[in-house]
Amino acid sequence: MSIENIAGINIADGVVSAARVVRRGRYKIVLTHAGWMEYAPDADEEAIIDVIRKLWKKARMPTRTVCSGLQTRSLCLKYFKYPDLAPRELTSALNLEAEETLQLPPDEIALDWHLNRPKNDPYTQLGEQLHGILVAVAKKEVNSQLNLLKKAGLFPVISDVGCTSLCNLFLALRGEKVNNDNAVCVVNLSRYNADISILYNDHYIYPRTIISRSSEWSSKVQYLIENISDALLYYHVKVDKTPVTQLVLTGYVPKEREFVAQIHDTIGLPTEVWSPLEDANFAVSRGVKASKDYDLISPFITTTLGLALRNT
């Protein structure tokens, strides 16, 4: 199986989106295939499977092997920090954290983690302060999504979550903006969810995911501001002192000018609305540009682009 034959797929907030990308040179990323289709909020499994099949045909996707996004209200996404814990004890410690958060026995939990450590130091030494991200969820939810994708004729080989997909995408396109002197807070909005990721130092990550249960973000801007502010405060107090110098909004950002202005004025950071498809390090194939709904693709596929990057 060629590693470049993996597409990203995300099913969330009434939208199925798919994308396939390849690398051209060191930085340039090319979107070769993409598309999205809506499904009804009350759609059952068979209806979603039908949408996936139609989308694959519509986008002329050349592969059925996928990296899928996992979105569920019960997902455990936690920053952890263990002073002086031996690396061999890390798995046990994180298992206990997951059990306590999810209130499930260990054999019913799927978990993984990302360690924040320098890229040129792949091994964590004894006595080093271990810190990073814990991701845990009930196995039945993972299996349910994998089974749905298989019924749609796809072959899922990787599962990822929105925050880390967002980080993969931003670092691939704008990694030079993150260093020991500058941290960046990237916020990806879907219709009812927001992935907040603070990127700092040697591409370290502090993530948070929030959910707007009642309405879209255009009418919940104060709730969004409060959560971004909380994430920034926790980061500075508990995580790292590298200053956050920029706030980047992407995804399903409301069009009203006052939406971004209110966030900028309240939080007090330089604020940018970023479309990955318009980034200098990104290119879009003629076939995708010729799609009749190309102009609508960008807000729906930010997470999906990060998932698709797992093939490069």
Which descriptors would you attach to this protein?
312 residues; alpha/beta; Nucleotidyltransferase, domain 5; Dna Ligase, domain 1; six-stranded mixed β-sheet; 9 helices; globular
Explain what you see.
There is one protein chain. This protein has 312 residues and is α/β, with parallel strands linked by helices. The chain has two domains: 3-72 and 142-311, 2-Layer Sandwich (Nucleotidyltransferase, domain 5), CATH 3.30.420.40; 76-141, Dna Ligase, domain 1, CATH 3.30.1490. It contains nine helices and 14 strands. It has helices at residues 45-58, 90-102, 139-151, 162-174, 221-239, 257-267, 286-289, 297-300, 302-308; strands spanning 6-12, 15-24, 28-38, 65-69, 76-82, 109-115, 130-138, 155-160, 183-189, 193-200, 204-211, 244-251, 271-274, 282-284. The protein has a six-stranded mixed β-sheet with strand order 8-4-1-2-3-14, with helices on both faces. α6 (257-267) links the parallel β12 and β13 (271-274). α4 packs across α9 (302-308) and α5 packs parallel to α6 (257-267). The longest helix has 19 residues, at 221-239. It is globular and about 50 Å long. The mean pLDDT is 89.
